[in-house]
Amino acid sequence: GILPISLPGVSMPIKLGFAGGPLIVAILLARIGHIGPIVWFMPHNINKLIREIGIVLYLAVVGIKSGGPFLDIILEGEGVRWMVVGAAITTLPIFIVGAFSRLVLKENFLTICGTIAGAMTDGASLTFANSDNSSEAPTLAYSTVYPLVTFLRVITPQLMVLAFWNL
Predict the structure, then answer these.
(1) What whole-number distance in Å separates Cα of residue 148 and Cα of residue 22?
(2) Using a CB cutoff of 8 Å and minimum separation of 24, what contacts does 110-114 make?
(3) I want to staple 125 with a disulfide (CB 3.0 to 4.6 A). Which of 9, 94, 107, 117 is the partner?
(4) Nearest-CA neighbor of 122 among 163, 150, 151, 82?
(5) What is the pLDDT of residues 7-56, one digit of tens each?
(6) Does the model's pTM come out above 0.70?
(7) Alpha carbons 135 and 128: distance in angstroms, whole number
(8) 6 with 13: CB under 8 angstroms?
(9) Cα–Cα distance for residue pair 37/4, rounded to 1 Å
(10) Residue 38 and residue 132: Cα distance in Å, rounded?
């Protein structure tokens, strides 16, 4: 992910970063299937176990890092204002995507949950969507949307900098 990629007409190379590079390699290896005796397939139970452990560790680290100063930030200065703005920025796209998916695309609830979780790259939401059902619809929708969103999150800021650099 740290290797620079030169694009024609762009003055500086772009990089996929530590998230985009491994993601692209994982997608390519999954598509290839195997190289010699090495099989790039993971059984469903192992995949689910690793996913659950990853979510638990991620949420634990986020909680530990943000727990201490959280109350101080909320109670001092403009903390409440920024929380309201953050809540609006987070919920408005969810409602728009959810309404569009249900009313226009006629998707079911579980697929919409997976799509929204993938669009927000929110593994905790995917875990919640998978918790009360046996359907793979949320995971399938998540895995369809997540790579594109991750790729766009890495590439878009670099392209924006390059576009506005020349102004």
Answers:
(1) 13
(2) 110/135, 110/137, 110/138, 110/141, 111/137, 111/138, 111/140, 111/141, 112/141, 113/138, 113/141, 114/138, 114/139, 114/140, 114/141, 114/142, 114/145
(3) 117
(4) 150
(5) 787 777 877 777 777 878 888 888 888 888 887 777 778 877 887 887 78
(6) no
(7) 13
(8) yes
(9) 31
(10) 35
Name the β-bridge partners of 35: 38
User: Would you state the structure tokens that stand for residue 52, as one six-digit string?
Assistant: 């659950």
Q: How far apart are CA 22 and CA 96, in angstroms?
A: 30
Q: What share of the chain is helix, strand, coil (3-state, %, to 5)?
A: 75, 5, 25
- Compute the residue count for the chain: 167
Locate 17 and state its tokens: 């970063």
Tokens of 110: 């579980």
Q: How far is residue 24's CA from residue 97's CA, in Å, rounded to a whole number?
A: 25
